[in-house]
Amino acid sequence: MSDQGLFIVLSAPSGAGKSSICRRLLAACPEIEFSVSYTSRTPRPNEVNGKDYHFISREDFQRRIDQGEFVEWIENYGHFYGTSGKAMHEVLGKGKDLLLDIEPRGAKEIKKKFEDGIFVFVLPPSLDELLNRLKKRGHESPEAIKTRFTQAESELKEVLWYDYTVFNEDLETAARELIAIYRAEKCKTNRLHGKIDRFFKSC
Fold this sequence. Notes:
Rossmann fold; 4-stranded mixed beta sheet; single chain; 5-stranded parallel beta sheet; 8 helices
């Protein structure tokens, strides 16, 4: 029987660089699987169904809510987003590790249901820099940017209950810090009881 896998929940406000950090963690640690969330919104250019998100209709999403399929779900900017509890349990039960890219409300729901997750919050260097990054995206209206920035200010207050905080002042440094967090957590004694037991039985 394999040891239970561990999971990392990564949260950050829009514009903090969370997606870029996620990609670097997955590239450096290919043993980690990425948790593909479900959403009711339509795909953006270059997004791939089943890789970036599972894109489903609003009606299908509501049906899955009613059936209790999601371990967490939220409505954000008029669209549903959620994490499949079944998929999460399947990956972890096989002893595989999982990375979840989830905003704070969803992360808090998962923390209530799973005791041993690793919760990491990514902060930008400053609020001014966060606003600059949102403006540089170039594909959103000033009103949309203002809405995202207002929500970001609210989300930043959630940082204090997370286990770790990574400041994304430099992308490569922030990615290295997240990788270090993951590798250190893998070495915690309480996560290695099965392996330790097998070691002593083989003596």
